[in-house]
Amino acid sequence: MHRSEHGYGERVTIFDDPVTATLLARLGSPDSTRAEVLANLRSVYAGLCAEAAVDRLPRVRREVPTRMEEKHPGTGIWRGELVDPASEVVVVDVIRGGIVPSQVCFEALSRILPEDHVRLDHLHMSRVTGPDGSITGTDLFGSKIGGPVEGRHLFVPDPMGATGSTVVTALDHYLESFGTPASVSVLTAICTPEFLRRVLEHPANVHVVTGRLDRGLSPDVVLATPPGTRWSEERGLDADGYIVPGAGGVGEVLNNSWC
Ligand SMILES: O=P(O)(O)OC[C@H]1O[C@H](OP(=O)(O)OP(=O)(O)O)[C@H](O)[C@@H]1O
Ligand SMILES: O=c1cc[nH]c(=O)[nH]1
Predict the structure, then answer these.
(1) Is the beta carbon of 251 within 6 A of some atom in ligand 1?
(2) Predicted ipTM?
(3) Any ligand 1 atom below 6 A from CB of 127
């Protein structure tokens, strides 16, 4: 995967490839149908999940006989590194924007690990706005969490990393009551510099993999510098907590539910 150069530190991966950029440009376009948005979101998350799995999951060396082994004993055997099948993973479904991305990750990880090592949890969450329309926090209304996360690799696919309030609330909930994961990967289709600052400060030692980093409200002089070089001056959030340029309310579009 082509990765963007940036100054946000080693725990951040930003995709830099024209395929992901094209999918995300269509995803955010006012002309795209819901079917296109869904299909593009699935494609983007297949890439984000694979990248996080490569970076975070332990590996083992293995020898695997192929169908050629019978004809070529000893040489018809593939030798190399695989994902360690002992790894255990928990995918977090952040309802509602995260429903489709979490299902994509759950299915993808279930193809590379034993099925009983991959779990899907659900968190019912919603951002809360104050009287002026600005985001004041995130409510966690309920959860279905299938057990501890201690020693497991946590994947949090949340498409729009805006203020970071949703992800931080989710991680607080896990750390308070369900143990310490072996690693935490937050996967966003699009995120802001403000989001990165907030989630990287979290004690869970978060790694972020994002398809795009949007900082469209930054001054021109800052936009002329590589991402993260003048991080404190970068702005990607509008006054209502929406990402600019962003993709609008993705949870709303995906669900045709404007609330
Ligand atoms: O980084 P934050 O500022 O917390 O915002 C991000 C949240 O908004 C979107 O979801 P969705 O539209 O489902 O949620 P909402 O109704 O809470 O905006 C997105 O998928 C995140 O869950
Ligand atoms: O820009 C944003 C911010 C939060 N949620 C979205 O769907 N879009």
Answers:
(1) yes
(2) 0.96
(3) yes
Q: Which phi and psi angles does 248 have, rounded to 5°?
A: 75, -160
Q: What is the pLDDT of residues 217-236, one digit of tens each?
A: 999 999 999 999 999 999 99
Domains of the chain with bracketed CATH: 12-58+87-255 (3.40.50.2020)
Q: How far is CA 71 from the centre of its chain?
A: 44
Over range 1-22, report the average pLDDT.
Answer: 96
Q: Which atom of ligand 2 is nearest to the CA of 252?
A: 7
Q: For 92, list phi and psi in degrees, rounded to 5.
A: -105, 120
For the CA of 244, the nearest atom of ligand 2: 1
The whole-number pLDDT of residue 135 equals: 83
Distance from residue 251's CA to the centre of ligand 1 (Å) = 7
Peptide bond into 42 cis (omega under 30): no
